[in-house]
Specification:
two-stranded antiparallel ribbon, 193 residues, five-stranded antiparallel beta sheet, 4 helices, 18% strand, elongated, alpha+beta
């Protein structure tokens, strides 16, 4: 086999394995019967000390919203961050003492509704209401087996395809050593501020 053909075969095999950890963004991966929504102030009335409400006239103060929630078969609205309270939208910097405005998580809820309903249609209907700041499907995050960092090949100390004597073969090591039982998750998508 000629050297040129050998390189061609190696390149094709390499391209195949490099494509494995890449996710298909066209896949619609979300939890059925769940969406995340942020509401305008004074729309959802959560009883003191509670983090969940059942939609009715006392807890949902917008008739159009209550009608849509009933239409899609909503069972509960759960605070995305259960301990968030109304007015937790500012913090004081310990260094400068200035007030910093942060996202008001007390108005962001996970809406649990009938799993037979089309999530994308329910989200679309929800986003048309004036009392809704935003609504989106509750995405399912799945980890990659290998890093999909576009600059991973530039980190020659981890994996050097040119001269294998000058790297630590990190991808091979990950097959043998899975590390500690401590799991750290960094999710850098899906939240709007």
């Amino acid at each position: 086999m000629s050297l040129k053909n050998r390189y061609l075969i190696y390149s094709m095999v390499l391209c195949f394995f490099m494509a494995l950890p890449i996710k298909l963004h066209s896949q619609d991966q979300h939890q059925p019967g769940k969406m995340i929504a942020k509401f305008s102030p004074d729309i959802i009335k959560v009883p003191m000390g509670e983090s969940s409400v059942i939609p009715d006239e006392e807890t949902i103060l917008d008739e159009d919203l209550l009608s849509l929630l009933n239409e899609i078969g909503t069972t509960t609205l759960d605070k995305l961050i259960p301990w968030s309270e109304e007015g937790d939208s500012t913090i004081t910097s310990e260094i400068t003492g200035e007030q910093i405005i942060i996202h008001d998580w007390s108005r962001v809820f996970v809406i649990n509704f009938d799993e037979e309903q089309n999530v994308n249609n329910a989200v679309s209907q929800m986003n048309q209401l004036e009392s809704v700041v935003y609504a989106e499907p509750n995405a399912i995050a799945t980890p990659d087996v290998l890093p999909n960092d576009p600059y991973f090949d530039k980190q020659w100390s981890l994996l050097n395809n040119v001269n294998s004597k000058f790297d630590i073969d990190a991808t091979s090591a990950w097959d043998y050593a899975k590390g500690d039982n401590i799991i750290i998750a960094i999710i850098d998508e899906g939240a709007q501020a």
